[in-house]
Amino acid sequence: MELRGKQKRFLRSQAHHLQPIFQIGKNGLNEAVMVQINEALEKRELIKVNLLQNTDEVADEVAHVLEAKINCEIVQIIGRVLVLYKASSKEKYQKISKEVQAI
């Protein structure tokens, strides 16, 4: 599902105060990190991922890989910080996705 402009704006406002909970460093984006990011998205729906200075990864490339592999939406890329969104499949975690659908 592609996010509309208003939905992205809402998600950006929600993500503004979040701290990045994942940091991608010199090991790059590997399978284990992707599994963890997917699990975090399942529980939180909206997370930030930080690319450290010592990584060879490029933010745009990481964003596209994550989008393809774990089927999430890229809300925003600011420098080395990605904001990711994925609606949770579990009812009890669906706080943000219900608000997004209402927009």
TrEMBL record:
Signal peptide: none annotated. It comes from the Bacteria. The keyword RNA-binding applies. Gene3D superfamilies: YhbY-like. Keywords: RNA-binding. One of its GO terms (molecular function) is RNA binding. Residues 1-97 form the CRM domain. NCBIfam families: RNA_bind_YhbY. This is RNA-binding protein YhbY. It comes from Enterococcus devriesei. The lineage of its organism: Bacteria, Bacillati, Bacillota, Bacilli, Lactobacillales.
